[in-house]
Amino acid sequence: MAEEFKRRMHLYIIQTIYEAVCNPEGWSDVVGEIRKITGATSAFFMGIGPGAEQNASVVSKHVDRNLLIRADFVDIVHTVTASLGQGGTVALDIKRNGSTWQAYLADMFDCEGQLVIAIITKEGQRRFILGLNFSYEDQADVRLANELLMALTPHLQIAMGIHRQMLKDREKAERLDHFFSQSATPRVIVSDDFRIIESNRAFERLIEKNGSFLKRSEGFLTVASSALRQEIDRLLARSQQHAETGHANIAWVKEAEGGFGWLLKVEPLGSKSLNVTPFANLGFGNDAKSMLSFCKMGDRNGLTPAVVGSVLGLTTAEASLACELAQGNAPAEIAHARGVAKNTVHNQLTSIMARHGFHRQGQLLSFLSTLSLFIG
After folding, report:
1. Where does the HTH luxR-type domain start and stop, copy by copy (predicted)?
2. How far, CA to CA in Å, does 94 sit from each of 10, 116, 148, 237, 263?
3. Domains of the chain, first to last
4. Which partner for 249 in 9, 15, 80, 235 could form a disulfide, CB atoms 3.0-4.6 Å apart?
């Protein structure tokens, strides 16, 4: 009976883990259930990067998160996990009369016992860990906890990978949204069956020039491009599932022929949507409607400052700098070629990254590489 209960709890925790992918608040439930089934006194998830407490994010149960993000504790976690690989574990003794850091842990957790730390994911200096604190009274549960961690770690790694990718996609969509803020963006509002309800002049010009991909047929939108239609269908389904939030969905679409691609944006419209459209006389009613915005990209001219500037909302000088970076030039080389101080280029680069949520230069270069791919 006890084994059956543990099996059911194990399956329940796995289900809770995958539910947390789409609901970040669910990680609190995950760590709570892991604490219960392992018998730990307290438990926490911690994400840490290089640096002190400002780079630590924590979800905890039965321990104050403010204690966990202290620089001293973050430094201890950094030190003891530095040589561990992904999936590795380490057990730290907690003793009031032990070494300096053992006494620090005893004071922090207000008990003596053992702290088990497992590395769920690790990317360079960045890592996501699970910590379980066992008092001496709970020591018999440590072995069972290690067995459970071995079983749950693959699921936690998969869930965190999906979660990170979703965050990256969301950040990319937010950056691309600059491109759709232009008044000349082709837009069309369609019903569930692709009946055209309203469109702007830019959209009419778009279908005139690209009739082999998009056209109006007897009042309905016909999408001849299979790649574009597949992505529209996917985004429409996703936007209708989350219509109450009014969030837009943005995607890249690369055509197999023609050397160009599309940036596509789908926004749910309706009585529950908070979106404002450029169509002043549009009545929402109760029927589901969606606004599609298209940007055709790619004229075989490669990545240009004009394209980069319009997508990211950069000044001419900033867009030029971004293009030079994408071509493989280092900031020092760019500064030398322009006859300016390295700090000038560095400050421009820092400004670009800060405004658009790029934490590392590599993230900006990755984004520019993707943009380059889609413009041919």
Report:
1. 311-368
2. 28, 10, 22, 52, 55
3. 2-172 (3.30.450.40), 182-297 (3.30.450.20), 305-374 (1.10.10)
4. 235
Beta carbons of 49 and 155 less than 8 angstroms apart: no
Q: Which residues of the chain have pLDDT under 50?
A: 1, 52-53, 246, 271-276, 300
Give me the numbers of helices (H) and strands (E) for the chain, helices first please. 13, 12
For the whole prediction, is pTM greater than 0.70? no
Burial of residue 275 (number of CB atoms within 10 Å: 0-12, 13-18, 19+): middle
CA distances to 50, 84, 90, 229, 361 from 123, in Å: 11, 12, 18, 36, 16
Q: How far is residue 300 from each of residues 152, 179, 255, 323, 373, measured CA to CA in Å?
A: 48, 19, 13, 16, 10
State both tokens at 110: 């207000």
* CB 199 within 8 Å of CB 188: yes
Distances (CA, A) of 271 to 196, 275, 285: 18, 10, 6
**Residue entry with tokens 């047929």:** 217
Closest CA to 127 of 164, 78, 173: 78
H/E element holding 171? Answer: helix 142-176
pLDDT tens, residue by residue, 157-168: 888 887 777 666
Per-residue pLDDT of 334-357, as tens digits, reads 998 888 888 888 888 888 888 777
φ, ψ for residue 58 (rounded to 5)?
Answer: -135, 140
Closest CA to 40 of 156, 105, 151, 137: 137
**Region of 357 on the Ramachandran plot (φ > 0 left; ψ -120 to 50 alpha; else beta):** left
73, 100 Cβ separation under 8 angstroms: no
Average pLDDT, the chain: 80
Nearest 10 degrees: Cα torsion 51, 57, 59, 62 = 40
Token pair, residue 209, equals: 């020039």
Residue 65 and residue 44 in contact, taking contact as beta carbons nearer than 8 Å:
yes
Alpha carbon dihedral 346, 351, 352, 355, in 10-degree steps, equals 160
Both ends of the chain: CA-CA distance in Å? Answer: 62
- C-beta separation of 122 from 156 below 8 A: no
